[in-house]
Amino acid sequence: ILVDPRNPKILLASAWSRENKGGGGVFRSEDAGVNWRPAGLDQHAVRALVRAPSNPDILIAGALDGIYRSRNAARTWDRISPENHEEIRNLDSIAIDPRDPEIIYVGTFHLPWKTSDGGRFWKPIHDGMIDDSDVMSIVVDRTNSRRIFASACSGIYRSDDSGVLWRKIQGIP
Fold first, then answer.
1. 3-class DSSP state for residue 44?
2. Residues 60, 100: contact at Cβ < 8 Å?
3. What gap in Å lies between CA 75 and CA 15, rounded to an integer?
4. CB distance 43 to 16 below 8 Å
5. Model's pTM, two decimal places?
6. By C-alpha distance, which of 85, 34, 37 is closest to 64?
7. Which of 19, 10, 8 is nearest to 39 (CA)?
8. Is 129 helix (H, G, I), strand (E, B) or coil?
9. What 8-state DSSP symbol labels residue 130?
10. Which residue has the higher pLDDT, 22 or 74?
């Protein structure tokens, strides 16, 4: 659930069906959650939803079938990941660089990916991570956007170079 920083009564929520039968999408409330209406991506299983810290109109949604962006606060959505990509699907987490909304990090069922150009080109960023690590959460440090944290099945990782190399944080079981 996202709260609009300009108006706390406006909420956005992502949804997906456990049965993966096409249920889900993004939903909007303008009365602090009393009433909800569809806000796009109908029938997509949307498992992650984030707002760009530098521009509240930019939203990124991660679904089972890929990554979508809205530049107008969920009025319209465009796919920004390649269709039917073998790896960039089954999204668990998304983070947007706090200064540049074109830099997006995503965690998939397998490993993390990054785009620096708003989704035109994606590259895997998993050096230092144990292969086959579901990336359940990914966070960019607001004070140093080169520092990123990711939680995965194999542990918690930190990168100090925008995802080029990851180091497992020791001491966490």
1. coil
2. no
3. 17
4. no
5. 0.92
6. 85
7. 10
8. coil
9. P
10. 74
Lookup: tokens for 70: 């809205």
Residue 33's alpha-carbon distances to 25, 40, 45, in angstroms, are: 16, 17, 20
Model confidence over 110-139: pLDDT tens digits? 899 999 999 999 999 999 998 877 899 999
Say how far apart CA 41 and CA 46 lie, in whole Å.
8
CB-hemisphere CA count at 13 Å for 53? Answer: 15
Confidence of residue 161 (pLDDT cuts 50, 70, 90): very high
Q: For residue 137, what are the β-bridge partners? A: 151
Q: How does pLDDT run across 31-68, given as a tens digit for each residue? A: 999 999 999 999 889 999 999 999 999 999 999 999 99
Residue 129, class by beta-carbon neighbours within 10 Å (0-12 exposed, 13-18 middle, 19+ buried)? buried
- Cβ partners under 8 Å of residue 111, min gap 6: 87, 124, 125, 126, 129, 131, 132, 133, 135
Is the sign of the CA dihedral 157, 63, 31, 33 positive or negative? Answer: negative
Can you tell me whether residue 78 is helix, strand or coil?
strand
pLDDT band at 172 (very low <50, low <70, confident <90, very high): low
> Which among 33, 32, 119 has a CA at the least distance from the CA of 71?
119
